[in-house]
């Protein structure tokens, strides 16, 4: 894996980040604002508002592979913490509250902690894919300009995170050829729809209130997961360094 490329990418991505105009006038009907605020409050907790690090009991197995990998993981989670800061700006704008616990987040963290870093990395990859679907819908239907601008910033980062996960998974030779690869793809797809359904259960009131539909949501989920699996197949190279990452900017563009 080309560590230097990812360190350079994350450092470069800190630049040119215009802050959403949180003080802009706001005109959102109360029946839309209430579910939207609940959703953004929960997302702030889940997207970097909790522990902004790997938390699996054996996380050092992954982090300590090299000093560069440790740095990449820290840079990745620094962006997650930045998402929580941005979402906190939206919560403040809508006069919401900073929540520090929710049953779904507690269950999410417990699974990450006890099931090991390999499982945690897959869960985080799937979370980034289904979150991308959520932010794309929120941006498309947002009744608020600054909220849409926030979604655009977070989507820019998440496209980088998804590309990093693809690079990481391809680098370990996954999915393998033959039946094992087919089974891996199947479990990834099933887990992806499970993660998407958890998100839908918690955030459907918001997405419906702003004009989204269940069909649109699952269409986005399908698009994100299947595109990820397809690109993973293209990325897998026997050399261990996927050639497609030679120009990360181009790759990130296509992932958005
Ligand atoms: Fe995030
Ligand atoms: Fe992310």
Bound molecules: fe (ii) ion
Largest sheet: none
* Spatial shape: globular
Helix-strand topology string: HHHHHHHHHH
The gyration radius over C-alpha positions equals 18 Å
Q: What's the mean pLDDT score?
A: 91
| Count of extended strands | 0
Task: For this entry, give a set of tags.
256 residues; mainly alpha; binds fe (ii) ion
What does this structure look like?
This protein has 256 residues and is an all-alpha fold. The protein has 10 helices and no strands. It has helices at 3-12, 30-49, 60-63, 67-93, 103-114, 117-141, 145-171, 178-209, 214-235, 248-255. The longest helix is centred in the last third of the chain and has 32 residues, at 178-209. It is globular and about 50 Å long. The two termini are 22 Å apart. It binds fe (ii) ion (FE2) (2 copies). One fe (ii) ion binds at residues 47-48, 80, 83, 158.
What's the SSE blueprint?
Layout: H1 3-12, H2 30-49, H3 60-63, H4 67-93, H5 103-114, H6 117-141, H7 145-171, H8 178-209, H9 214-235, H10 248-255
Brief characterization of the structure:
This protein is mainly α. Helix content is 73%, strand content 0%.
């Amino acid at each position: 894996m080309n560590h230097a490329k990812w360190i350079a990418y994350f450092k470069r991505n800190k630049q040119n980040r215009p802050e959403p105009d949180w003080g802009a006038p706001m005109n959102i009907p109360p029946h839309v604002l209430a579910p939207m605020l609940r959703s953004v409050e929960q997302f702030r907790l889940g997207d970097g508002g909790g522990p902004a690090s790997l938390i699996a009991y054996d996380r050092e197995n992954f982090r300590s592979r090299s000093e560069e990998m440790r740095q990449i993981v820290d840079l990745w989670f620094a962006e997650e913490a930045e998402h929580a800061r941005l979402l906190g700006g939206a919560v403040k704008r809508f006069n919401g509250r900073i929540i520090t616990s929710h049953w779904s987040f507690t269950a999410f963290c417990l699974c990450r902690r006890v099931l090991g870093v390999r499982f945690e990395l897959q869960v985080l990859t799937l979370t980034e894919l289904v979150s991308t679907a959520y932010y794309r819908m929120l941006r498309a239907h947002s009744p608020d300009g600054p909220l849409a601008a926030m979604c655009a910033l977070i989507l820019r980062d998440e496209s980088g995170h998804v590309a990093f996960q693809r690079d990481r998974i391809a680098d370990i030779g996954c999915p393998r050829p033959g039946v094992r690869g087919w089974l891996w793809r199947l479990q990834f797809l099933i887990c992806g729809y499970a993660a998407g359904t958890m998100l839908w259960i918690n955030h459907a009131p918001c997405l419906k209130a702003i004009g989204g539909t269940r069909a649109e949501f699952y269409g986005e989920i399908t698009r994100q997961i299947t595109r990820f699996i397809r690109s993973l197949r293209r990325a897998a190279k026997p050399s261990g360094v996927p050639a497609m990452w030679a120009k990360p900017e181009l790759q990130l563009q296509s992932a958005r």
